[in-house]
Amino acid sequence: ITELTLPSARFPLEMARDADAGINSVLTYQLTSNPFFSLASRDNPGGKKQPELVLDRVLDREKQSFFELLLTAVDGGDPSRSGTVQIRVNVTDANDNSPVFSQSVYEARVAENLPAGSLVLRVRATDADTGSNGRGFYFFGNVPDDIREYFSVDSETGEVRTAGPLDFEKTSKYSFALEARDGGGLTGHCEMQIDIMDENDNAPEITILSLSSPVPEDAPAGTVVVLLKVRDRDSGENGQVSCQLSGEAPLSIVASPGGSYKVLVLVKGLDREEAAFHELVLRAIDGGDPARTGTGQLRVTVLDANDNAPVFSEAEYTVHVPEDVPVGSVLITVTATDADEGQYGHVKYS
């Protein structure tokens, strides 16, 4: 009997036979007490009673899959005689149960550098029905197309795996629905929440926002020469950056309050006559393990200032001149040089 059979349905049973005659062959039937079934009878054209099994309550195969009843036929003799037969009622399955996931929400944390095909987690749904009605297959629910670019689900096993490279900096969390569908078309649903864990896969980036070059050599200490932006797209310690400066220039790095900007300032005066330019290497190091490094190069040119006086080649010149030397004669040629350049280094004599 299918479990969807409605109450009051009747099922004819085999009639008993009695070889006696008359009252000794008149039969009545009795059924063991059961809340789901009762016994009824109807008269056959020959005058004999046909026993029938009557369903009194709705069946549920998932609660009870079979019933064992005892049918007794009693004749009208004195003393009476009886015969019995066992009736086994098998309740056949109907697809009246949907698949049910073991969890309504599945959560997982995976690293962003997992290779494609890596196992994220395994979902499981059960169905109280039997056969194809109780076998579930797994599918994506109504999800955006990009979910299928990053994840796949095995319809047989319920394994959720990566389908493409994950990037924490692009998306740090995915939420989508999975569906279990049985052979009869009934479905169950669950929610997937996958958190992507940051890996130190990005090196710090150094961007020069402004550069004051050339810098006058008489610029005072504290003058801002370079404004930098330092960024690391990772998060947490992986995104915390410290900066170092290498080179001979009298410059120092100062962090701005926001943390993402740095300035290079003069710590003492420049001297173009000692160095006309300075080559600098900036190094940004993050807090990952192992750490990643970003570098940048700068060339700061020093602008000349008139900070040097002309210097004669000799501190004192001595010339011996005859008293009859003609007017206009060259007595001596003196030379003076100036360490400055351009107009500051051009010397005139008087």
Automatic annotation (TrEMBL):
Q: Name one Pfam family in it.
A: Cadherin
Primary localization class, coarse: membrane
Where the record annotates domain Cadherin, the positions are 16-101, 102-206, 207-312, 313-350
Question: What are its GO cellular component terms?
Answer: plasma membrane
Entry's Gene Ontology molecular function annotations:
calcium ion binding
Q: Which GO terms describe its biological process?
A: homophilic cell adhesion via plasma membrane adhesion molecules
Q: Which keywords does UniProt give here? A: Calcium, Cell adhesion, Cell membrane, Glycoprotein, Membrane, Repeat, Signal, Transmembrane, Transmembrane helix
Q: How does it sit in the membrane?
A: Single-pass type I membrane protein
Q: Where are the transmembrane segments?
A: none
UniProt cross-references to CDD domains, sorted A to Z: Cadherin_repeat
What is the official name of this protein in its record? PCDGE protein
Gene this protein is translated from: Pcdhgb2_1
